[in-house]
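In response to reviewer comment 3 from the previous cycle, which asked for concrete evidence that the modeling workflow produces usable outputs, we include below a single protein chain processed end to end. The sequence was submitted unchanged, and the resulting structure tokens are shown without manual editing.
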Amino acid sequence: MKKIKASTLQESIIAMTIILICVSVGLMIFINVVRSDKAIDRLKANLLKKETLLITKVEKSFVEDEIERDGFIIKKNIYKFTSGNNCGVIEIIVSKDEKDLTRIKEIVIKNESYE
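The workflow returned the following structure tokens.
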């Protein structure tokens, strides 16, 4: 009779352990890439928020608006103070996929120069 060469239980366990380590490392790399993508979205949202606020103040366009840019939705709300006509609050909300990423509220004086 011919002997069939087979692997032992120890060899099988060692091979499974090596495969498990490789899969674990690959999964950690994948999770880090997905997390960095979310961080990049938040960074872009913050930049868009600051840019929109600056443009609003420089151009003195104190009107409510909703803009879509680079896949983000930028919503600009304007609230007036009841005590004075030239003071107000600008609120800017940046969202993506119906999820708010960042927001800012700032008090502005409408007749000030921001240049």
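The first strand starts at residue 65 and ends at 69. We consider this sufficient to address the reviewer's concern, and the full set will be provided in the supplementary archive.
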